[in-house]
Amino acid sequence: MNKKNILFIVLLAIVIYCQAQEYKSEIIHPRGLIRASELSSLREKVKRYPYDSLLAILYEKVENATIHYDNSSLMVYEKSFLAANTAYIYLLTNDRAFAQISYQYIEKSFTDTLFVFNPYSFGLTRAQALQNMAISYDFCYNDWTEEQRNTIQKKMYELMLSVNNSMGFQGNYTMESNWMGIRWSSVILAALVWDDPLESSHQYPGSRSMPLQWDATFLLRNHIDQNITPGGWNLESISYHSYNWSFIGPSIIALRNHYFKNDKFNLDQFAPNSLQTMHALATSTVSIRYGNVKGITADLSDDDPMFNNHVFTYSQALYSNDQTPYIRWMHEYLLNTGNNDGLRGSSFYSIAYNRDDIEAHNPAEAGWLNYVDTMQGVIVFRNKFKDENDVVATFTTTSKLAHGHQGPDNLTFRILGLDNIWVVGAGRTGQVAGQTNLFPAGNIQNMSHNPREGELIEFGFEKNGSGYANGAGSCLGVIDHTRFFRADYSEESDAIAVFIITDKSLNGRSWRVNTPEFNRVKINSTGYDLIAPNKSSMRFTFFETDIATTTPVIGKVRYGGNTIDHNMGVCYKDSCYKYNRYIDIACKGNIIAIATMQEAGKEQPNVAFDVARKTITVGRKEFLLKNW
Questions:
Q1: What is the DSSP-derived secondary structure letter of residue 559?
Q2: CB atoms < 10 A from the CB of 563, how many?
Q3: Count of alpha carbons within 13 Å of 56, Cβ hemisphere only?
Q4: Cβ pair 241, 404 in contact under 8 A
């Protein structure tokens, strides 16, 4: 352990002890996600639009659960969320009935066999139940009886110990795994709001939650350092960041509320690697709807593409004012009052943390049309921040692998835009058949991959979001694979977007694109078109394939492979789709692919290749192939 970490531990212990003395004289609630001094202004805030509509969503969530489900048949996960949702309503309205309803749902949660008989059960569920129990206890404390408080205090302490000690037999215990962020964050929040009934008896020098809080805070800090690169990219994928930080974000807010005189819990000191993460998330995400939620991003590192506005809610309370205007813009971009399912408290967080005092600004003003993390080797090109028709292309060399989600996606790319999902990966699986990439000869359906890291060689950006990247290194057995990827959003191409992909290798034999099954494939003489449900199109044109034909081989592969749990497929608009449609173009080592994106009803531009000059012409614009 280095001197810096030892100093942090000592200072943290001193701060915790001193603050604990302040709370001995008077028990104050709420003090976790919201401080008691903020209650009156928050209850006034919820009376006006759009916050009154978000409160209505919370009412609807609770009412629907009560009407449509037999409460005895609800899973413990659902019961704990109902406890939190009703606690939110109580806090916002001071309606005492909801404090009692919240207690009833918590009581039903801790009588579940998950806690009574199996402390080594699925740790993510126990951590979620702990977080929701802590929120309910903190918010409803003032309207619970002493007997109710004592009952919850006992059960919450038992659950804190359980989660602190173990995430169960299924847990991923590597420090960079999101399991650890969820674990320590739930313990921190619970420890901060818990009241030790033995503290006043002087059996201990302080609350029994203090050692748990100290331990979890130190470990959470280490987890964030390893889970996120210094450039801000989450190693387990930017989409998965939302789940992990639905615990981490609230826990840091609670630390800052509890120790509001200490700046050690500001992000620049406690979690400096996260400072560029909002930039990464904003650049990567398009407000495409799935179900009642907006937000689709690249499905890298064996994750799915579904995202939402959740992280842009509480992040307004965490990030400095130089980023908050753009974070708030993203919050509005991914939210309308009829398009929020209340998942993981997002409706409440929107009410509590949306910054009315700061004007929202378009992220393009901050230079967020592009993003790069050189350590992870990921680069994003975006044409604008406006609506669901925004175009985003993501290219990754996967220069750093996590010991969790680490899909075989070296040198792959993803494309979103025109209110559609065009190019995807394999989902939550290590199987390679669902990847978009260059493959060697052999049976793609059954081949395995090597956990090999790639390399980002060079990249460049233009002011309108266009740019290029050059990478090397295959994890699919392609020898000497290098890929040049260019995104262009200029009007001269006569297309909404142009993407040029040039691959060089010794043994590449099959160039595969995976697209969700709702996109139709139309073969033409130079390649094929993908036709979206809204009739917009993406045309792939191929050159230098070293074979006589560009006729593709088309088939289906299950999104998520053999993964069963939590495998919804690709959710888009009103349905979830279980299959990718793969399209293979045969090649012999090298290949040039040009993808042009066009709105419905408009013709695709002409595409030509000048072999001698090594240039591609699309519409009225000429491109030099850098690695050809």
A1: T
A2: 16
A3: 11
A4: no
pLDDT value of residue 260: 78
What is the percent of the chain with per-residue pLDDT over 90, rounded to a whole number? 72
Alpha-carbon torsion angle 597, 434, 439, 509, nearest 10: -70
Helix axes 76-93, 346-353, angle to 10 degrees: 30
Q: State the Cα torsion 422-594-494-536 to the nearest 10°.
A: -20
Distance of CA 404 to the CA centre of its chain: 15
Cβ-based neighbours of 250, under 8 Å, separated by 6 or more? 32, 33, 131, 185, 189, 314, 345
Query: Quick one: which of 363, 359, 214 has its CA closest to 281?
Result: 363
User: Which residue type sits at 32?
Assistant: G
Q: How far apart (Å, rounded) are the C-alpha atoms in residues 203 and 623?
A: 75
Check if the beta carbon of residue 427 is closer than 8 Å to that of residue 262: no
Per the listing, tokens 């090999």 go with 452
Return all residues near 35 (Cβ < 8 A) that are at least 6 apart: 257, 260
- Of 387, 362, 363, 344, the closest CA to residue 276 belongs to 363
pLDDT, position 476: 94
The pLDDT tens digits of the residues spanning 273-322 come to: 999 999 999 999 999 999 888 999 999 988 899 988 889 999 999 999 99
Contact status, residue 355 vs residue 310, Cβ threshold 8 Å: no
Tokens of 395: 């290219």
User: How many Å apart are CA 119 and CA 163, to the nearest integer?
Assistant: 8
CA distances from 460 to 283, 420, 484, 485, 488 (A): 16, 26, 12, 11, 12
The DSSP result for 59-123, as a single string, is HHHHHHHHHHS-GGGS-HHHHHHHHHHHHHHHHHH--HHHHHHHHHHHHHHHTSHHHHT-TTS-H
Q: What is the pLDDT of residues 334-356, one digit of tens each?
A: 986 454 555 567 889 999 999 99
Where the chain has pLDDT below 50, the residues are 20-25, 337, 339
Residue 507: name the closest of 433, 441, 583, 437 by CA.
441
Q: How many CB atoms lie within 10 A of CB 472?
A: 18
Where residue 303 falls (left for φ over 0; alpha for ψ -120 to 50; beta otherwise) is beta
